[in-house]
Amino acid sequence: MNDSGDSESNEGGRTDGTDAGDRLGGPRYWVLLQVNRWVFTGAVLTVVFLVLVAASRLGLTPLRLIIEDQNGLEYLFSAFIGAIITGTSIVVTINQLVLSQELGAVGQQRERMAEAMDFRQSVEDAIEEDASPPEPAAFLFELVEGVQNRARELEAEMETERDEELRAKVADYVEDVTGNARSVKEGLRESQFGTFAVIWHALNFNYSRKIYDARQIRADHADALSADAEEKLDRTIETLKLFGPAREHFKTLYFQWELINLSRALLYISVPALTVVAIMLMYVDGRALPGTFLGIDNLVWVTSVGFVIGISPFVVFITYILRIATVAKRTLAMGPFILRESERDEDLG
Fold it and tell me: Where in this chain does the entry annotate a coiled-coil region (predicted)?
């Protein structure tokens, strides 16, 4: 969205075309967006396990005493059964509701196909290609390259411009566009849809700011722009405007892909989690597993493991939703609107 979550700015402009506030770099976005969801889940569960084990060394009431006197295991683990079953059922149901949007009569499917082909034709006309690639990463690659080419045509048109201020503004703008496009293309070149890489690199192309900057140049120098230069600027804007719908389309497909993965992950992990919870309820009490390991009661080790496995479906759900929510937040506004904090000019108030 990056969320995950990249550029350095200087006095004369952005070196790679990404606004300071539009970046997806840093450890926060790396964790929220790029880390493998199973690795993220494992890390969270490991932290919870270590905290539970460490708590037994704080001088609190011994776990074995709580289990013997208050039947603590039953209170702790019986709630997991209903929570796991109910939570998994709800998530799978929501997933099916989302995927039901893909179902429809043949007329609706033909209309969707026609709209998709119309959009593809618009992109091909804008980037001057006979046939655009069918694979998402390659399609976005060609579209970004088309934006880059339009910007270079604009720069070439301005070589004979006498207005030094206008020429400098256009040069900075073209450097911004081409620098950002170059870094995004490099990432898209090896990306495969189904991984987060395609969406990650698409998020790093800040087309909204580029549309705004181009329109601002046209508004500030309408009298100085030649007819050919204005045409080149308009072509750049029109090509940029195609990137928004393309990114949103692939983002929607990715969300559906991730929801399917989430449902499958929950189904895979729920049965083992329920099995472990049942074992804890059926066979473990205050007299089980006497002795210690590394100075810690064996019952603490086993109960901590059981608790971590019991909450694992919930943690899997959190890790997937965190990425989806982060991307959604970063792409709430499509078009020339910037909702996040960004580099401020005097004209942005």
Answer: 137-171
